[in-house]
Structure formats: structure tokens, C-alpha cells
Amino acid sequence: MEILQARKFTSESKWVLPSATSASGHLERPNNSWHMVCKKAGIKNLRIHDLRRTLASCMSDAVASQRTISTALNHMNPNSTMYYNIPYLKLVREYMSKATQIISECARSYNIYNTI
């Protein structure tokens, strides 16, 4: 927030990310800027959509509803959000382990002679 507030006082533009080349006056297609930032940071093979996917997955791990995640990603169709929601594998394994324990307990306590 400090950076944004400082930019507000020093910039003549009404936009947070102004652009001298776009018709609107603000950054519209960040691909070139994104690649330049990644190159300077030494980051390879990171796309902007990877950040969206990460945000959606973290929100899901924080138990946000699919509708909330959909709103954060500005999706008109909530079903679109499913593809961004990549579960945290440790959490998936934990729930699979719990389910396996429940199945094992049921199998051990099941008496076949009571069903005949």
C-alpha cells in the first residue's frame, strides 16, 4: 500500500499502471512487461495465469467456497473455476488416508454372518 500511495502523489496518471502506447492510457496487455520483469528476476517459465491458478488453489486450501474463488477470478461461470483449483497434495493425501481408515474400520467390524 505504501508503494501505491507514493505513486499516487508522484504520478500524473490516474492509472496505477499507466501506458503511453495504449489507447486507454493504462496497461492493457501486460505480456511484454511481464516477460521483462521475469527476466530481470531470473524467473523462467512463469505465466500470469500461473499466479491466478496459485491464488485459486490457496483460496481453496483456506476453505473458500468455489463461488468466492470464482468471484475473485472474475469468472462469469463458476464451473470455470474448477480448472484453476489445484488441490494441495498433502491435504489430498490426508483426506485419502482418513477415508482409508474409515473403510478399514468398517471392514474389521463387519460381520458377514449377520447378513445371511
* Secondary-structure content class: mainly alpha
| Helix content range | 40-55%
Radius of gyration from the alpha-carbon trace, in angstroms: 24 Å
- First-to-last CA distance: 70 Å
Shape: elongated
Counted beta strands: 0
Share of β-strand residues: under 5%
Can you summarize the main beta sheet? none
The mean pLDDT is 85
* H/E topology pattern: HHHHH
Enumerate the spans where pLDDT stays under 50 for 5 or more consecutive residues.
Answer: none
Keyword list:
Integrase-like_cat_sf, Phage integrase family protein, 116 residues, mainly alpha, DNA recombination, Integrase_catalytic, 5 helices
Describe this structure in words.
The model has no long low-confidence stretch (mean pLDDT 85). The protein is 53% helix and 0% strand. The protein has helices at 2-10, 31-41, 48-61, 66-72, 89-109. The chain has 116 residues and is mainly alpha-helical. It has five helices and no strands. Among the domains are: 34-85; 87-115.
